Amino acid sequence: MLLMNKTILEICANSVESGLKAQQGGAHRVELCDNINEGGTTPSYGTISRARKLLEIDLNIIIRPRGGDFIYSDDEFDIMCTDIKIAKELGADGVVFGILMNDGSIDIGRTKYLVNLARPLNVTFHRAFDVCNDPFKALEDIIECGCDRLLTSGQANKAIDGLDLIKDLIDRANKRIIIMPGSGIDESNIEEVYKKTGAKEFHASLRVPVKSNMKFKREGVNMGGTKGMSEFERMVTNPERVKKIIEIINRF
Predict the structure, then answer these.
(1) 197-226 pLDDT, tens per residue?
(2) β-bridge partners, 106
(3) I need a surface site. Which of 8, 179, 197, 227 has the fewest CB within 10 A?
């Protein structure tokens, strides 16, 4: 198991750039993903390769073939298997995934298969848990599957609103698995999350908008379907925000 006394900050990085900023700020681990506005999907081969070359901290890769729900076709499951193999080949430290049945329970068979396929990498079951039908049954199922860590907001939109369940999960887990709060955790609330749950690992993104270097800007043409997002800025993890959280958790 990966249980330890040290308090850990994991940064959800939406690019190699964000991963490097997280490292600069003192983060202990990066969860690398693409399409963060869809909750994160698997990054490209090139992105994983470059991140592994440049990052000295631990690197976990999200294995999620698309946005939306967490029930997957045979083709999508095959893609997940291939992506796990690629993550291993490229030197990732861990993978992050979650699979549900259509009744909202954990897909135990497929989860066990992916855990075994991923070894010796560490495995995090992600926030698919937060839309499952029974958090306590799901916790036991995820432990049975051999996952090392559970990322959760306590089945709330933001972790700060799910602290009671997160605390209950930590108590019930009894060190059999790491419970890592995530979603909306930042400098303003991480101390409260810690005090009310006793968690030892935390998941945050800590991004800020960065303006494009484009001088010519063709306005009114959007490349994607997300309203309110400019084509001339991007969201990047801010190292100063990471440093601030590291300063806070070092007091725990």
Answers:
(1) 999 999 999 999 999 998 998 887 777 655
(2) 100
(3) 227
pLDDT digits (tens, 9 = 90+) for 10-24: 999 999 999 999 999
- Of the chain, the end-to-end C-alpha distance in Å amounts to 22
Helix 16-25, helix 45-54: angle, nearest 10: 20
User: What is the per-residue DSSP string for 175-217?
Assistant: TSSEEEEBSS--TTTHHHHHHHH--SEEEE--EEEEE---SS-
Taking the CA atoms of 212, 213, 215 and 221 in sequence, report the sign of the dihedral they define. Answer: negative
State which CATH number among 3.20.20.380, 3.40.140.10, 3.40.50.2300, 3.30.530.20 fits the domain covering 8-214+225-249. 3.20.20.380
Residue-wise DSSP of 55-94: --SEEEEE--SSSS-S---HHHHHHHHHHHHHHHHTT-SE
Please state, in angstroms and rounded to a whole number, the distance separating the CA atoms of residues 206 and 214.
Answer: 24
